[in-house]
Specification:
The chain has 296 residues and is an alpha/beta fold. The chain is built from 11 helices and 7 strands. Helix 2 (60-73) crosses helix 8 (203-212), helix 7 (165-177) packs across helix 9 and helix 7 (165-177) crosses helix 10. The protein starts with 13 loop residues before the first strand and ends with a helix. The protein has 2 domains: 1-35, no CATH class; 43-266, 3-Layer(aba) Sandwich (Rossmann fold), CATH 3.40.50.620.
Length: 296
């Protein structure tokens, strides 16, 4: 690693192991935003007169994608941004005050919804009843469902997520180890198209981008994350990536290469007859099945 930027003589802020580049603040931001814009352009994720809902949890990933998209669309006529925050009902975890501050500072409308109000129970109650082995799976399933519903009710055309390259790679490896290759395909019933501008950018670079633009949020780990299967896979991926820096990119490319083949062989499953969203399993999607069980 060099102490000076590879592209100029300024002090280096970041060393990219996968590229061998040392980048100063200016060239890091330029490199970061170029990658994100290329991903948006390649997937045709931004059109005129669209409303984009951003899933704002208050962490670095979500605040970074909100800042990036706000600056990207504010000069475009007819485009608008709205932030959505989901309160899962996990004691001591979600900092709603900081999340509201982020939306206010950037200057976008902010919608706050909760598991308790929408489903009738909190994530703490789910874990108390179902155990914590698959807590991340249940939480992610309920959260994604509620994000979709809230974005749809707000009239959004796209739903932006702060998914990083590390997140995408972890998802792929988790699906492979569970033997669920078809699960890599976006679930049917998602009427608001999910977009992930940072899906080809490593998590540490997304965090640095958020820090540069004033995110004050500390890292508050979810109390259930250490007990989940996803956490075990995350440890495995992190350990392997230390010796093989391009691993996350390889897993990401693996998923993209399989996507069309999986769709051609399996097609899209039917939407849930109860909520109209999600992947149908029997007579209801997993969200509706879990809600029915929790409210019995």
């Amino acid at each position: 690693m060099s102490d000076v930027c590879t592209r100029c003589s300024r002090p280096a802020l970041l060393y990219q192991r996968y590229s061998g580049l040392s980048l100063c603040r200016f060239h890091f931001i330029a490199d970061f935003e170029t990658k994100a814009k290329r991903t948006v352009r390649k997937n045709q994720w931004l059109a005129r007169n669209e409303k984009i809902a951003v899933a704002l949890s208050g962490d670095k990933n979500s605040s970074a994608v909100l800042f990036f998209l706000y600056n990207l669309v504010r000069e475009r006529r007819g485009n608008s941004i709205i932030a959505i925050t989901i309160d899962e009902g996990i004691s001591g975890y979600r900092d709603i005050v900081e999340t509201c501050r982020i939306a206010q500072v950037i200057g976008v409308p902010h919608v706050l919804v909760s598991f308790k109000d929408q489903f009738g129970f909190t994530m703490d109650q789910v874990v108390a009843r179902k155990g914590d082995r698959f807590s991340c799976l249940y939480c992610r399933m309920l959260r994604n469902h509620l994000l979709q519903k809230t974005a749809r009710d707000a009239g959004a055309d796209k739903l932006a997520l702060g998914t990083t390259l590390d997140d995408a790679a972890l998802f792929v490896l988790t699906q492979v180890l569970q033997g669920d290759l078809a699960g890599m395909v976006t679930m049917t019933g998602e009427k608001v198209l999910p977009i992930s501008p940072f899906q080809e950018i490593p998590a540490d670079e997304v965090a640095l981008y958020a820090d540069i633009h004033g995110n004050r949020a500390g890292i508050v780990p979810c109390p259930y994350v250490d007990t989940g299967f996803r956490h075990d896979v995350s440890d495995l991926l992190r350990s392997y990536t230390r010796d093989h820096p391009s691993t996350c990119y390889s897993l990401y490319r693996f998923r993209e290469g399989l996507r069309e083949k999986i769709l051609q062989s399996t097609g899209f499953p039917s939407p849930c007859p109860r909520c109209g969203c999600g992947k149908q399993s029997g007579t209801a999607c997993p969200v509706c099945s879990l809600c029915g069980e929790m409210l019995q």
